Amino acid sequence: MAKQHILALDYIRGISMLGVLGIHTGAYSLANPAANPHLFALLEIFTRFSVPIFFFVSAFGLFISQPLQTEFSYRAFLRRRFKAVLLPYLAWSFLYMLHYTWISSDISLWHSPLIYKYLAFGLASYQLYFLVILIWFYACMPCWRQLVRWLLKAPVIGLLSLLTAQILFNYYSSYILTADFDNHYLNLAVQHRMSFLILHYLFIFILGAVCAELYPQFLAALERNRDRITVFFTATLTGMLCFYYYLIYNEHYSLEQAVNTSHQLSPVGVLYTLGATLFFFTVFSRPLPAALATGLACLGNYSYLVYLVHPLVMYYLMIELTQAGIQLTAPVTIAFYLAALVLSTGMAALINKAGRLIPLLSLALTGAFPKQGTIRQKA
Question: What does the similarity note say (predicted)?
Fold first, then answer.
């Protein structure tokens, strides 16, 4: 199969990036004890598909560009993928660690064993765990290729079985498993399991691979079931919101407790991720209004750098608000979100431009030498 550029993937990256910014804006909004629960639901519940769908996009991009029937060199694959992800992960981890040391004068994280813990679990900044999980997915690629071969013999039954196993595993990991073992290192791994354990996102990753392998059939199925997909997306989103509001108003959870319970790894959260993935791919597989297509494509092109840099932008925005004595009311929270979006995209554009002038900087921060146009996220 010839290499294809699929616009729907760009648009999904763009809308997912908006969701990631929403999740982290919601976390900052909790600085206001009277945070609006409905705005918080928009920022933190509606957006819960954002990180898992990136795994779908990554797998889809990998398998559409290197399908099963083509020759696969594991060594060459690792060299390309680790350059695209491992180098930026290390570079940005050190940048965030340097930033923390600069603002706190605390150098303890540079000494063992803390530095190894930070790098192993993506603790230098709260968004970096995604890259740790992605690196593990890449390292295990021969396993995924074999699993996809097996699933293609009966894709519907295989994916439904994997979805069921995913829900059961995530429920156990999210609500039952605790770090109370005798072994210190096992406890450490269990404590930070959300930051590295790829099994939490295995279904959505493999779904992306299978859909890429069956791309024409996948598109036809989306079009054929367009109305059903919309209903499924709406129903699962409603389920997420009902769970959230039940926890707040019936169980009297705080907003933070509610969102830490009604999340993307909950049973309804896994189904919502599936619903959102199918829904957005369906919508974005048709022509979009020019302005919307341009905006989403721009966000998709910059999504990798925006994802990496936005915590710094939000940190300094919050400092400005705190120094000015401005509380994160609902209107201020919305303005904070928009400012973070604009400034993070601007920072991404500046890094992109600087990378064209200093190729090694581009390699370190994006995992690629500069090309004409914007630096795009690696699949």
Answer: Belongs to the acyltransferase 3 family.
